[in-house]
Amino acid sequence: MAAPVKVVTLCIDGRDVSGREGETVLEVARQSGIEIPTLCHMDGLEPVGACRLCLVEVTGQARLQPACVTQVSEGMQVATVTDRLRTYRRMILEMLFSERNHVCSVCVSNGHCELQDLAQSEGLTHIGLRYRYPTLSVDASHERYVIDHNRCVLCTRCVRVCDEIEGAHTWDVMARGIDSQVITDLAEPWGHSDSCTSCGKCVHVCPTGAIVEKGKSVAEMAKRAKFLPYLSMMREEW
Description:
Elements: E1 7-12, E2 15-20, H1 25-31, E3 55-58, E4 65-66, E5 77-79, H2 83-99, H3 114-121, E6 138-139, E7 145-148, H4 157-166, E8 171-174, E9 181-184, H5 201-205, E10 211-213, H6 227-237
Parallel strand pairs: 1-5
Antiparallel strand pairs: 1-2, 3-4, 3-5, 6-7, 7-10, 8-9
């Protein structure tokens, strides 16, 4: 007989809510209708806490905690909207825009981009950081898809969906820090990959216009990621 699930009660933004032991602050918040911004997180993939946009304040802890990997506990008090958090989230978004070459007006994902949506929700109309303008490549060697490293935010969704769901592990991350870049196989051109199954999962979990289908024009690339929770559940059952 399975052990009974323990229910814990906590407070998020002044509201008393409940969740199951082992659930994260992000899960419980969303179940309670409380939105916390995320970029690397996606239902159906293992959380990694990479983007740090879901940082929250937990009473009694000096450091901000990523909601996607912080488990709830009895009596926990969490704040998701404070001046401190707004400052951090805006700074993170500014760094994301300054590190690569994001030009929304000519992007195939314009109007369908999670980074763009987050910037709008946070009221980000300009940034105070110097743009790096890195020289980054566009790999169109695959017969169906394109990856534009100028628009990548290193959320690693493509890496995780290829590994956890498709089981191919075509994608990985090369280098470190600001020089990090997603790669296929051992930095081979995507079209030369022996492991890629051309399933398209990486395309539809990408939050920006970094990985897209060929033949799409400006604002035509809408992502379809609703398949992921179902595939994740079926994989666990199998």
